[in-house]
């Protein structure tokens, strides 16, 4: 039964000094599902994503990945990646001055026992990825091109493609569309939509409720460090998402005045 | 064509070298068409080039080290005193390498673990090691002429077939090794990403602390090796050893196209840059100008080429 659950977090708590960032957060993501985290600034969305991706350690709570309990004391970005959890950040995801092939394989190079990289093979795989998964074609496409020559959408696409190449079971996308032009957003959303086609899952975090509604199967509403509501995409309209989010914002505003 | 574009910096620096050589040959054919001057170059340039190789990796990783001339002095002193005390220059060499890596480790720990920016940390350690060397030596030079006929002398700075300076071969071998590391090894990849954006590198699972400390140690080792070679070549050690190398080595690296912002750099560029810096003085003097022109020419070449790089990078982005 639990095998089709990729990740299950139970009762996560996290404080930064006196500020309680997360309070009793539990969630699970199924195979082939795109789940969206919705909430105002500071609600705790990023804290949740950082705990799942191994950047932050929760104060208490537990984490199950593919049905196995994870020892949170030894959980790291590295460990998360080895368990098939990849994060695509808005920034700090690619090395600007490095060629594409290095960015695809950084930290996970195809190498021999002495640590020397199989450059020819990596370039070939990169070119394949650029053409097949990202749909970049033509003479201009090269594994040696630098990241700084890519558009914002292409960068997010590359990072998502990288996660796919390494067979990520769960791809966490933290605000992947925020800094993009309209045309670029469409491409990124298309990449995200293609994730469940291969039986993989995604956790999508965005402020833009239109984008959220377009790609996610299920919405989790986060308010003041806890998940307050969830609903399915087919039973919720974009307008309802807006209403609910505004309600939470208004509540916190009132409390703020007090 | 695409390949040529990719290597445009390397092509640029190489044509600068060829151009300068052509100019010097034209101005003073009797000097620059004779092999003697090139053998002289091959005996002097490798010292700066070895330092520049170590520093290139450090700069690609977004760090720097201003203390290497002082590390040269202190490890050279260890070499000279251990060689004299034990009559074994090989022991002296190991002592110097140990001292150099220890000094590098100190830099690494101060920068990486304590968090002091490299420019400040290495200004401090630079004074410290220079002071240590001067104190230990009581401010006096050490005469090392008795090492002239030792095996280590022949291996490190001897003349192969009675003409080719061994230090140039060592420099070449180490340059090839560094090239392999920077371009074909996972360490080189780590170095590039750390210099490009250290947060990205961390997110991608690079062990940034270890790599950065390792690079400072490497720089210490290269300083020690260069110092031992200088001691053997000059048959003496002196308390201000290494002082002249600081700016020349940085100049060679930036001339070679390594980015001051980290993330990018080439071994080929650094070696070519070292050669250009190394031949300028001889070229100017044998061309009939006074030695006073040397610094002016250094300055001119550096400012112009670094400006060309900046313009080239700007046009690529837009």
UniProtKB/TrEMBL annotation, chain A:
Keywords: ATP-binding, Nucleotide-binding. Residues 7-249 form the ABC transporter domain. It comes from Desulforhopalus singaporensis. This is Monosaccharide ABC transporter ATP-binding protein, CUT2 family. The keyword ATP-binding applies. Gene3D superfamilies: P-loop containing nucleotide triphosphate hydrolases. GO terms for molecular function: ATP binding; ATP hydrolysis activity. The keyword NAD does not apply.
Automatic annotation (TrEMBL), chain B:
GO terms for molecular function: transmembrane transporter activity. Pfam families: BPD_transp_2. GO terms for cellular component: plasma membrane. It is found in: Cell membrane. Keywords: Cell inner membrane, Cell membrane, Membrane, Transmembrane, Transmembrane helix, Transport. Signal peptide: none annotated. The chain crosses the membrane at residues 7-25, 37-61, 68-87, 93-115, 164-182, 213-238, 244-261, 268-286, 292-312. It is a multi-pass membrane protein. This is Monosaccharide ABC transporter membrane protein, CUT2 family.
């Amino acid at each position: 039964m639990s095998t089709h659950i990729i990740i299950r977090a139970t009762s996560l708590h996290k404080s930064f000094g006196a500020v309680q960032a997360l309070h009793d957060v539990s969630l699970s993501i199924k195979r082939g599902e795109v789940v969206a985290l919705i909430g105002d600034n500071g609600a705790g969305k990023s804290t949740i994503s950082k705990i799942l991706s191994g950047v932050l350690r929760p104060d208490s709570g537990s984490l199950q990945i593919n049905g196995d309990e994870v020892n949170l004391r030894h959980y790291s970005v590295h460990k998360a990646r080895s368990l098939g959890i990849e994060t695509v950040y808005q920034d700090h995801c690619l090395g600007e001055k490095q060629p594409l092939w290095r960015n695809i394989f950084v930290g996970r190079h195809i190498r021999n026992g002495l640590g020397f990289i199989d450059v020819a093979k990596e370039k070939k795989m990169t070119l394949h990825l650029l053409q097949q998964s990202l749909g970049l074609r033509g003479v201009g496409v090269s594994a040696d091109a630098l990241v700084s020559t890519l558009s914002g959408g292409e960068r997010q696409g590359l990072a998502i493609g990288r996660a796919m190449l390494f067979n990520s079971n769960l791809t966490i996308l933290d605000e992947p569309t925020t800094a993009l032009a309209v045309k670029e957003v469409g491409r990124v959303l298309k990449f995200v939509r293609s994730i469940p086609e291969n039986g993989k899952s995604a956790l999508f975090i965005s402020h833009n409720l239109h984008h959220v509604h377009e790609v996610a199967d299920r919405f989790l509403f986060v308010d003041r460090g806890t998940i307050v509501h969830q609903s399915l995409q087919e039973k919720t309209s974009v307008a309802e998402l807006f209403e609910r989010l505004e309600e939470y914002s208004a509540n916190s505003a009132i409390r703020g005045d007090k | 064509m695409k390949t040529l574009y990719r290597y445009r910096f390397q092509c640029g620096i190489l044509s600068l070298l060829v151009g300068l050589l052509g100019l010097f040959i034209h101005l003073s054919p009797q000097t620059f068409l004779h092999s003697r001057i090139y053998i002289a170059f091959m005996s002097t340039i490798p010292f700066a080039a070895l330092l520049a190789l170590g520093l290139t990796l450090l700069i690609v990783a977004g760090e720097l080290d201003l203390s290497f001339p002082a590390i040269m002095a202190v490890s050279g002193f260890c070499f000279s005193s251990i060689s004299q005390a034990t009559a074994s220059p090989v022991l002296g060499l190991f002592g110097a390498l140990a001292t150099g890596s220890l000094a590098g480790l100190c830099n690494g720990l101060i920068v990486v673990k304590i968090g002091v920016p490299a420019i400040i940390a290495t200004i401090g350690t630079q004074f410290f090691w220079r002071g240590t060397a001067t104190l230990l030596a009581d401010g006096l030079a050490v005469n090392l002429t008795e090492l002239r006929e030792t095996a280590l002398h022949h291996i490190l700075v001897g003349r192969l077939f009675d003409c080719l300076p061994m230090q140039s071969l060592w420099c070449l071998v180490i340059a090839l090794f560094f090239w392999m590391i920077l371009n074909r090894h996972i360490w080189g990849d780590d170095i590039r990403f750390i210099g490009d954006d250290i947060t990205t590198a961390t997110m991608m699972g690079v062990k940034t602390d270890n790599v950065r400390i390792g690079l400072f140690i490497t720089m210490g080792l290269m300083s020690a090796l260069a110092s031992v070679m200088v001691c053997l070549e000059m048959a003496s050690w002196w308390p201000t050893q290494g002082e002249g190398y600081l700016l020349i080595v940085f100049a060679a690296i930036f001339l070679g196209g390594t980015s001051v912002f980290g993330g990018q750099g080439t071994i080929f560029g650094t070696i070519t840059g070292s050669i250009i810096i190394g031949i300028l003085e001889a070229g100017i003097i044998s061309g009939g100008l006074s030695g006073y022109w040397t610094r002016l020419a250094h300055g001119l070449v550096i400012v112009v080429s670094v400006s060309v790089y900046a313009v080239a990078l700007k046009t690529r982005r837009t």
